[in-house]
Amino acid sequence: MKIIIKKISLVTVLIGSVLTLGCSEPSNEVAKVGEKVVTAQELANYFEFKRLDAKNTALVESAKKQYLNNLALVQAIESQTEYSDEKLAFELFEIKKDLLLNRYFNQYLEQVVTETDMRNYYAQNQEQYQSQQAKVSHILLRVNPADDETTRQAKYSKAVEAYSKINTGSDFSVVAQSLSEDRVSAKKGGQLGWIKAGAIGATFSDTVFNQLKAGQVSEPILTDFGYHVILLEQEPKTVKRSFESVQGNIKRSLRKAAKDAELARLQSTVSITL
After folding, report:
1. Among 14, 72, 61, 80, which Cα is nearest to 38's?
2. How many domains does the chain have?
3. What is the pTM assigned to this prediction?
4. Which of 76, 102, 157, 198 suits 1 as a labelling partner, its CA being 20 to 30 A distant?
5. Of the residues 83, 111, 139, which one is the last residue of a structural domain?
6. pLDDT digits (tens, 9 = 90+) for 2-15
7. For residues 200 and 224, what is the distance between their CA atoms, to the nearest angstrom?
8. Please, are residues 238 and 132 in contact by the beta-carbon 8 Å criterion?
9. What is the CATH number of the domain that holds 136?
């Protein structure tokens, strides 16, 4: 509870400090909290900050009570012996810093990173948004690093059995359903769908993208997952991602680069002497 009250008071102090800036003209006193006079102008500034509808009298009255109660809470805490202006000043600095940075960069980045910039980046970096993909099915006999040679040989023999059945006329999907230990793809006749080059492993990728022709089945090959028998259903083709599907990633990348550059520029405008 003590921590929660402290956080509320810090925010209230900050708001109070901001709202009272520039209010040098005398205004009507509407309340007094301890020794502090609260003016109509101060409340008006607070209501504007909270974006309250002035016509909603019930809401305005509730906000007024909340503001006065918060001022009272601040005074009560400040009167405690453990209260430290110096420590609070550092916390307020952090709040101010975060507010300034967030507001500045929200506006700045909206101006410097436009949809035109994103589309230009997309057009100039096509290689990032296209890949070679092939449609494949496989039969997997799993091999674990801890398996002994006898177990590995047994798995290899089973993979050879699957390959032989397919070569003698058995349907690949039927063999996959009965022998494959990749139960997810086995339920679909071994289908993995369209995969990118390098997605499963170097040996698997080389077999699919460099050695097989459409409709061909590979002899058993070994990867980190085990022994595979692979069917290349459709030959590799270049698949390009649309601008809309990558727009969010491009925006984040451009905004980060712009923010880093602007941070460096801002910091260079003020010297630091040690």
Report:
1. 72
2. 2
3. 0.56
4. 102
5. 111
6. 333 333 333 443 34
7. 9
8. yes
9. 3.10.50.40
